[in-house]
Amino acid sequence: MATSSELGTDWQRSAGDFSCSSCGRKRLPASEFSKKQVEKALESLRTIPDKDIRQGPEIQQVVYLSGICKRCTEEKEATERAEAQAKREQREESIAEAEAAMGPPERVEVSLGERPFGMTPSKAEGAGYLVVKVSDGKPAARAGVRLGWRVVEVAGAACGSASMEDTQAMLKAAELPASVVFEAPPAGAEFCTACHRVLAAPHFSRKMRTRPPERRRCTPCVEASEADAGAEGDGAEAEAAPPQAAGGPLAELRQLCAETAREAELVTGIRAKGGGGRGGRGRGGRR
């Protein structure tokens, strides 16, 4: 049973009827829970199908609210951070082993008989003529050119260290059929369509490696994209969220705690007094 020091009408510190569904603690004040958990608990009251709505002087209503307390939330987040760190360390170890085992790029020579060849190069600085798109039905696609291949020779002239613009000029000037030599990614490597880099396979998740080559992205690019999307979503939600009305969820909670204190007074004989501000705790005395 709640003691006189636990009873108060201050919604943040009232004994209330909160419990944590994770650690099982009961009779917790609302301050033990985040604002999001409190609002979620209050919202759940509206979805109870068989809620008893009878009222009267002889009917006592006891409403129990449950959520995940701040302590359990922090412990869960700490565990998730530790697990994520362990996965990162394991991935870095696998990457180092895969990079050490990778051989040199494979040289592939093809003949392109008509223009346009149907290849789109990367615009990344210093990448040379790195193929990032191959158009279906064009000479490059028919010759088997793949994403991540880099042009290193055109019509017998080396261009491995040339810029994309210079290599493109060589391709345009070459007589047809044009003999083009590419460097293909070595075994155990994949091409990321986001950062336009050839990386060791462990840089990609297992699920990502099952996707078509034109949709494969390395894990750092995926994580960066998700982080950006989350930040944009939070900003949009903050702009769209209307201001809390005076009778919103927090007002409901204050009323609920006040009713709980009144019911406790009837049962225990302890009179509940209003909390002294945000940090105050009500003190009761026997009649």
From TrEMBL:
It comes from the Eukaryota. Signal peptide: none annotated. Residues 238-247 have a biased composition (Low complexity). Residues 80-94 have a biased composition (Basic and acidic residues). SUPFAM superfamilies: PDZ domain-like. Residues 1-25, 80-105, 209-247, 268-287 are annotated as: Disordered. InterPro entries: PDZ, PDZ_sf. This is PDZ domain-containing protein.
